[in-house]
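Protocol step 4 of 6: record predicted structures for both targets in the notebook before any analysis. Target 1:
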Amino acid sequence: MASQMEVATVEASARLAAARSAAAAAPARPRLLSVGLACVDVVNSVFTFPGEDQCCRATGQRRARGGNASTTACVAAQCGVAADWLGATPRRGSPDAEFLLADLRRHGAGALPVERPRCESAPTSYVILSESNGSRTIVHARGDLGELDAADAQSAPLADYDWVHLEGRAGARGYLETCVAALEGARTVASLELEKLDGVLDDLERRVDVVFYSRERAERDGFADPAAFLAAKAAAIGGPRVLTCGWGAGGAAAVAVDAAGAVDAFRCGVLPGVRPVDSVGAGDTFNGAFIAARLRGEDLETALKAACAVAGRKVARVGFAGLAYPPPEDIAAVPSL
């Protein structure tokens, strides 16, 4: 007769075999590579934003990982995507590098750091967060960490991913151009975030599959509504491609332009009932959730609403921990406009 230990061993082996079989049968998660900044955020909370040349006492201070591309990766990972971040870091083992990489892991994202061995510190964003309305004001210090350049792009494993998202950073133009050229005509979806007001990267919007525009970009071009801005963009740059524009508390818009120039356009509001607590990274959250939705096979309108729903859940909390792909009721709650 088999001993209890032998029986337990057989049962454990059977469970392990079943787990391996289930893992092998499960569909592989879609893969995202998000390329750009990871930085240290020093967030000072205040009750109301101070006026110029005034002094006020912070109600709290925290140190967090920031950066558009790294946050996009962290949000997409929590929404079910196998997401990696790629970007420059200080030397391996430095306090800032270890802090950033540990936070990426904590949010389920992988990392492909491009080490700058002579650099000790990461870029730092000094954020003033108003508790009265959730708004944030940012002063960014790049420091001496070099941007990604064209030489760095030669080793980027772009073809390993289903989607490559590029944060539009003027100082990394050589890197971005090299990546865009490599992705043109490839099976991998290429997206570009154009947030900053300079026009250094404007010509690249015609060479990618998806463009994420900021409200500031639309206002720079004289538009007070995201739908009107995207309609003008669609007419100017054509397709096939998808364009989105987030509008903060005003929701977001998205258009799909086909090769003949025909446009499908959608506009939606925000998740209702949300009390703003922390808007730092809300736009990056929108981008990560939108990418996750499209990689799940969602249509454009559903992806737009899903992204707004996740952004709403983010604004209602400090940081990004605990975000997830929204349930159907959250998506349905986001109103069409």
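Target 2:
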Amino acid sequence: MSIKYNEKNFPYIDLGKGYIIYLEDEDYTDERWVLKAEQELNETPENQARALEQLRELLRGEKKLTVPLEDEKFLLKFLRPLAYDVQKAFDCIRHTFLMKKNYGKDYYEGRIKPSHIRHIYDSGMVTFLPMRDDDGCGICITQLGRKWNTSKISMYDVVALFRINIEASLMDPLVQLNGIRIIFDFDGISMSHVAQASPKHAMVSLQWIQKCCPLPLKSIHIVNNSMLFNVMFTIFKPFISKELRDKMYFHNRDWSSLTKTISPKCLPPAYGGTLDAPECEGQLLGDFMQLYDKHYEGECQTPARNRFSLLSQSPLTNVRVPFSFPTHHGGSAFWGHHIAALDAFGYDETNAN
């Protein structure tokens, strides 16, 4: 298991057994996904061009918000997941950067690129499963119990982890189209974990997910949930909308329940599945993620007033993207595009109204 480079000089993790994690830089062209996008999102070249221009017009009217209006891929990561509803995409962009403006000091400073939360990846808390579900959804596991060492990883770090990972997932057109499924594993939860939770953390994280994030969360699965999890959940529950609550499933250790909503072939045996892919080592995933710090460094280099600035180019064939969604060899489940990071721009109070 190691990091290698393909013929285009893109890095990838060779997991063994034919499974890899790597980057792709192209929109989907497979007939299945093109047809699905047309049927479910009314995505055609003409409708896409029209929506892009309408969104640009709305953003031009938001004088204090500086965004890369000509970066088509940036705008599409809001439009496509929201089925080209221009007003919803505009509102989502506004909410995203108002959140950054209001909570940036606590939740952004010092936690805006993968190397800042390298210790989380090293811990093995995050696992990206190497196969998409039957409907094209990506699958991610986050372990919020035994592998979460609260003496080294704060709740602020965990919130940043979600933001950085979702920022990456939004770059993948297939994730924009099909969405993701998230598994939260609370095996080993203790009072030290419960003590990390607070109404402010709950409010900020859930407001960001529900108002700022266009990413289609197809389902959220809670496993190994104990009585202590119930205590923690009572802190978050008041901030969970009905729409999000309807996507949540509580399985505890009932793997037959989990495999009714996620194909067993995509899940490792520990979760009732048959996937034989080796699990990516945490430190290796950390090495891989850190290769793409340049994608996020626009935030580090901008003044406090959050003005947009062009990102530095990565030495890796000018790639500015964070990481891929894992896939089995020969597949097309990738993350990554030449696109500005969300944290690289925002509201500028010095602009005129």
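Step 5 preliminary note on target 2. The domain at 2-293 is CATH 3.40.525.10 (Phosphatidylinositol Transfer Protein Sec14p). The chain has one domain: 2-293.
Proceed to step 6 after PI sign-off.
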